[in-house]
Predict the 3D structure of the following.
Amino acid sequence: MCGRSETVLQFMINLNKFLKQLEIENNYKETENCINLERDWAILSEIQSVGFEKVTDISLDLLKVEFCYKDEKDQEHKLQLIIPEDFPKSEVQTVTNLPDADWAPKSIKSFLGIYTEWRDVLEDYLPAWKELADLDKFCWVLDPDPPTPCDMYRRLAAGPSLSVQVELDPGDPFQLPHLKFFGPDSKVNPLREKLCENADLWDRDDPLLANLENLLGIEFPDKSNVTREDLKIDCWICYSFNLEGATPTTICRTDRCSACFHDACAYEWLKSLPDSRTTLETVFGNCPYCRSPMSVKIPK
Ligand SMILES: [Zn+2]
Ligand SMILES: [Zn+2]
């Protein structure tokens, strides 16, 4: 909308035309309290200070405005401001997609101050997002599904019933990330050993994926020529992958089986067994496929 509205006056004219149109279409009756010109004027001046060309969405009642920032890779990032009824007396709230969910601007008085602070923080995350984007492009990402800018980790399929979770430190995405392995012991233990042996091989100047493969002595299955069926990534109980946001992480530790389950599915199965055992936090029983012992934490 705002590529066409270069000045406040022009924006007001367009807004007015739009409101009139809405009035005709919806037989809308304006009440005394509907438009608070002083508030609207203050908000529009604030928006102009950031630049109308950066606005990607705005509500007619001016309770919400969304700004966009395009990074050097042309990726769009969105900042939403929730504007109170009694602006500028009360302060605006921000909604962002930053990994730090608690982020709040220090200069909450001016829109430009908020926008500038948000953009600066966002730029600090760009190197980490670039590394993660490469993983998303080439690997099977099991979790999160789908990844969002808030997520600083990826659980990557490393083979049938084997996955590696990579968590980056956004402050230094080029250092050896925190790694966690999922799979039967026979497949996970060699990776743990490689991690200990090869930690010195980590090279900050190499791309993340190449570094991981070098470190662990494996090649992550390429999304373009390995199917999800090959990787057995779906839950062996409910046959789905994403179950209300959860992905299968409970894995039968027996090598010849390696079945994987959602925690919730494994819990329901184990709980239903007549001979299952329960402690405060965990339920123990047998794998539905190979009858080997398995356990899962009781969901909270
Ligand atoms: Zn399931
Ligand atoms: Zn099993």
Remarks:
- The longest strand covers residues 64-70.
- Helices lie at 8-26, 37-50, 111-138, 185-198, 208-216, 228-231, 263-272.
